[in-house]
TrEMBL record:
This is VOC family protein. PROSITE patterns: GLYOXALASE_I_1 (PS00934), VOC (PS51819). Keywords: Metal-binding. The keyword Metal-binding applies. InterPro entries: Glyas_Bleomycin-R_OHBP_Dase (IPR029068), Glyas_Fos-R_dOase_dom (IPR004360), Glyoxalase_1_CS (IPR018146), VOC_core (IPR037523). Signal peptide: none annotated.
Length: 284
């Protein structure tokens, strides 16, 4: 998982609002394979290894349904350590009879897609070896083609599914945004990340350290969309880990140069992209 540790900047965890905490905990445990690390009346922190938070789910008071045309979460993506792990996840999901929304080969990775009971999108994927990725003039080649499901299943060793492997990480986050020009300025000039793929005027994929993408951004259903109301189901915030205190200081200066909000909180810096997606900047 070299693209999710120093000296790379990467997404480490997210915070979601849900409409029914009990229902969501059951889903994330039984279908996705998380363990509950911490739980209170309105909130639960989910982990794969028992000590590292990956997703926090919270049921706010007077929660409102998700509007798919608002900005916010498109999906969060859990990166499994191996293709065999992805095979076991696919077999489990088929046996659970929980509906999949898609299964794709992206050349750089293979992925399964589904949504939680509130419609929050989830990708579960495994990367192909990075030495097989094709780069052209600073852009990585990606595609969306049919997954070789049988070839994937053949990777399974036949042992029982035991939930998410402990080495699972938050591979990337994919966001719905209202437009791309100011979004590019914020993420590439403000946060200092690199554009690695652009799909016309509808989607950007950006990363650190030559990963295929740590953050995806699209306007497919959210062009001109508004920020969700405060109590809406969906993304509350996500965390971007920077390599060092120097990198954090430089990023704060860059954000101020593009007139992005910068707020010093207890233990992190909070900023917000032009579409209202909240980001916690930390150094670990």
């Amino acid at each position: 998982m070299k693209f999710h540790q120093k000296p790379v900047s990467y997404v480490s965890d997210i915070h979601l609002y849900v409409s029914d905490l009990t229902r969501s905990i059951a889903f994330y445990e039984s279908v996705i394979g998380f363990k509950v690390m911490k739980e209170s009346e309105q909130r639960a922190t989910l982990t794969a290894d028992g000590k590292t938070p990956l997703v926090t789910i919270e049921q706010p008071n007077e929660v409102t349904p998700r509007n798919q045309h608002n900005t916010g979460l498109f999906h969060f993506a859990l990166l499994l350590p191996t293709r065999a792990d992805l095979a076991k996840a696919l077999i489990h999901l088929v046996k659970s009879q929980y509906p999949l929304q898609g299964a794709s080969d992206h050349l750089v990775s293979e992925a399964l897609y589904l949504a939680d009971p509130d419609g929050n999108g989830i990708e579960i994927y495994a990367d192909r070896p990075d030495e097989t990725w094709n780069w052209h003039n600073g852009e990585v080649e990606m595609a969306t083609i049919a997954l070789d499901a049988q070839g994937l299943v053949d990777e399974d060793d036949g042992t029982p599914w035991q939930g998410l492997p402990p080495a699972t990480v938050m591979g990337h986050i994919h966001l719905q945004v209202s437009e791309l020009e100011n979004t590019y300025e914020f993420y590439c000039k403000g946060l200092g990340l690199d554009l690695v793929t652009k799909y016309g005027n509808q989607a950007l994929f950006i990363s650190s350290g030559a990963y295929h993408h740590h953050i995806g951004l699209n306007t497919w259903v959210s062009q001109g969309g508004e920020k969700p109301v405060e109590t809406s189901v969906g993304l509350k915030w996500y965390t971007l880990v920077l390599p060092s205190d120097d990198d954090l200081s430089k990023t704060i200066s860059l954000l101020k140069e593009v007139n992005a909000p910068v707020n010093d909180k207890d233990g992190y810096i909070q900023t917000e992209d032009p579409s209202g997606n909240v980001i916690h900047l930390v150094v670990k």
